[in-house]
Structure formats: C-alpha cells, structure tokens
Design brief:
Helices cover about 25% and strands about 20% of the residues. The chain is an alpha+beta fold. This is ABC transporter substrate-binding protein.
Amino acid sequence: MTDKPIKGGVATWACLPGFPPAVIFPFTPGERFGVRSLYEFQMLMYRPLYWLGRDGAPEIDYDLSVGEEPVWDETGRTCTVRIKPWKWSNGETVCADNVIFWMNMLKVKGPKFGAYSEGYFPDNLVSFEKVADDKVSFTFDKAYSKNWVLLNQLTMITPMPKAWDRTAAGPADATHDIGQAEAVYEFLMAENGDVVEEDNSHRTRWAGSPVWSVVNGPWRLKSYTEEGVVTFVPNEHYSGPNPPHLDELRQVSTTSDEQQYELLQSGDVQVGFLPPGMGVQPDGDPTKGGPNPLGDGFQLEPQILFNINFMAVNFSNPTVAGNMIRQPYVRQALQSCFDQEYGAREVYQGYGWSQTGSIPVLPKSDLVSPKIAERGGFWPFDLEKARQLLADNGWDVSASPAVCVRPGTGPGEAGEGIPAGTELSFSLRYWEGRPSLARLMAQFRDDAAKAGIEIRLEEVMGSVLVAEDGPGEKRMWQLSCWGGGWVYNYPTGENLFQSGAACNFSNYRDAKADELIAKTVTTDSLEALYEYQEYIADQAPVIFMPTFPRRLFEVAGNLRGFSPINPYGLINPENWYYVEDES
C-alpha cells in the first residue's frame, strides 16, 4: 500500500449492539447520557466549548475547542473564556450569547442534564455573564481546582445557536431572559422526541428539522432511517480546523456481536470491532493489538478509555432487596464474589484488567491510591471472605441462598428491614447480545452461589436496560449491568457518587462520601483524591468489574487517520481518509 490520500469515499461504521443514538439535543438527560449519543453522534454536529482528548492523551485539545484557554483573575474565582468566531451553518457567528443561552438552560433545567450534580455547576456559580460579544466570564462561590473546573465543569457546555431559541409559537429569547428557558427547553425536547422510546420513527425527522440542521461541527445529519442507519455528510459551512476528507459517514446498527463480525468479514463495513473473547492478547498488554483473526485486511486498534466498569446496585429499591443492598457488608460480599482476574484472563482473552476502585487503572497515572493498588482493591475475589461477612451479620450460609437467622439492627444482626427467614437473593438484569458479558455474568452467579448469594439472571436489550435501570426513586430493579461504566474527564466522584447526581446510577447517598468528594474539587492534592477513592472502594456503592478496551476496533487497511484513539471516547471521522492500493 501507499499513503497517497484519496479525496472522498464512504466509510461505514458498525456500531455496538442495542445502542442507537437516542438524543440529538445536546442537553442529554441522565438515562441517555453516554458515549453513543454524545461523543459518537452529537459532537460531530455540535461542538462543545472544550474538546476532550489531544493526540491520544487525556487533556484538552484547544485547537478543536470552540473556547480558548480560560484566563483566571488573581482571586482564583473568576475565569474568562474567549469564544472563537466559528460559523453556524446558517451563517451566524458562534458567540458569547450562544454560551449564555446554554447556561440559562442549565441554570433552570440542570437536574434534567446528565452531567449535573447538585451543588456543583452551575449551582456553585455566583454569576456568569457576557462581557463582550466573544467573551464570557464565570465567577465561582470559592476557589476550586482549576484542573477540575476546566475538565469537569466547563466541558459540560455546548454553545447553542440563536435558531434554537424558540418555542412552538415562534422565536423566543431565553438567551437574555432566563424566565423563557423552561418553555424553550420543552420545545426542544419535543423536537427531539421521546428519549426512552425505542422506535426510530421520531428520529427519522431529525435530518430535515429546521432546528437540528443548524450545526457548527464538521458534519451534518443527512438521514436517520427506521432501521437505525445514521448517515452524515460534510457541513459545507464548517469553519473550524480539519474539514472532512470523506463524502459520507454511515453508522449502521447491529443486533449482536456475531452480526458485527459477519459484517466485517463480508467487507460491508470499514470500521467495526472484534467481539470480546475472539481476540487474544498473548503478551498480557491490553493496550496493544494481538494477532488479528481478520488478517492483514484490517488494523486492530484497542480503544483504551479513561474509564471504569461496574455493575449498579439499586439503593432506592423499596423492597427487602433494597434493604439488603443498603447494608455495606452485603455489597462487600457481592464484590468479593466477583472474580475479575478470571474475567480479564479467560473471558476477555488478555484484553482486560481488574478495576480496583473508582479511579481508572489505565491509562496509567499517579491518580490511583497506592493503598488500593497494593491490595488489589479493598474487596478482591475471596469466596471465604464473602461467606464470613454474611455469617458474621446474621445469615446461615450452610445453604444457598443463605437465610437470615438474626434479624435486627444490632451488632451481628442482618440490618434494618430484613426479616427472619429472608433468602439472600437478587435479580441481575444485563445487556443481551454480548456472549462475553453473558459468560462473565454466569461466572459471577456461580461463584456467588458458593458464598450463599443467589443471582437470578435476565438478559435485556441494551437501550431498554439503561433507560429503565438507572437513577430515580423507588425503581424496582435490583442489580443491573450494561457491560460498561463511566468515562471520566477528571476522576472526582460528583457525577457518579454524589448524593442526587443525575448519573448516580445506584442512587447512592452517603454524607461522608459527599464530604470527601467536596474536598477533591477544591484542591489538586492527590491525598484528597486517595482518601475519597479508598472510602468508595471500601463502601462498594457499585460492584467493580474487569475493565477492558471499550472495543477492539477493526479498521479497513486502506483507511487512515483513525488513530490515535481518543481516551475519552470522542471520535474525529473528519480526519479519516482512504489511500490508494499499490495494485
């Protein structure tokens, strides 16, 4: 092959099973706040204020960001951001008003936004204001970690065009009158359509919408079919860096890992992924591609994200199951039943690693507590330890499932709301169509049974699972696993473990955790981060699972520009291009 670029062409990407883009409005609610709707769909069209990831490193790429680097005053409480004069596709200039429009909506509808955490952005602002046509200032209620503000707060902002500032009755002005933000939000959500509905009928209207067709990114939506085929074409009015080389980008839905592999083998797609368990990493380094089952026609690229994987446990379940989940010893026993090393070695064939707590193990950094790293987590796989935890807290583990024999709230008793005779049994819903995940869940079930915990497995379509089993009061699910977890910007815990956070999937509330999280956002001290993660690792508000490359990407041999892989999961298909074959 030669690296002589070819202008144009079509690249087709086969996406993960069960997760079509469900939200085009970049004010995404918690139940759909994930990589698929945001990083692989919305951000191709609507550029955020700050672009996460630069040349494969976990940092901000200011070249691809709408905002320039923040400038702080001497108090450390006010920062000013200059907005680059990029253009919207309708000819308007991206400006300070577009940021204020977003901020007014966030101020009014924050709890409806997936990245919102009560008490943080925008609650921790004294003011935000337009100081020039191209400048916005943010004044915080106290001095925070500047790194945290940039990576976890300002990255939430997506400037919104004036064309979106309207209701069904016509143009509005939520940009200058925050009192209108509620009505504008309701209009835009109606234009998006039901975020939980699985049918694609309402999504087929997005491409022709006078609202969603106003974009400032390198791509615009050409079509979204009933079958879930998403087609992008270049935004001919794009004024930022790196305009697209391709004529068209297609994203096709798949229903299973097997179908994904068949599409790759047939050559019908140029970008897909190797189903977990089909690739082997013989050297034990999950960051590097091993032998490729598809041969030389594809490049194997592990997608290592700055993320953790976990299983959510529902603290808000109103039944006896919820009462059991709210007991730390039960969660610690569940964690002790999860053989992460088996998953990394056998299920993921060397493309996996144990996740010891709330901070990503890979890419390697000094952010992981040495105490956790040395111990391999606070609750490593240990079935005898799990049995002992249960026996010490009022359970007869001579049979499986174990039976509560010492009810009550005193020492050595099972805990509040757990009657005598209760069996230690949980339902676990997980993402269907993933053989490797099914195998991992079956192993967890079998190991837990040896400790006296019954796990009842149920496969559920991925998008249904994340819509139904998530944050919210008095939901009935018990344990839920969508095969992933959370991709961090900066790994403080306000998004996942802060009481009331929109993406607190387990509905976990703990005053001490809130206090420790608050410390991590006001200082760049690693000791504060260590103290927080050690507490979370001990509490087990989620069940940490082996982490693995989000995908083992398979990229056609003549398609370039795909790497380096963004550690946050964002994609830049405008960088992709074909090269001529030597033949």
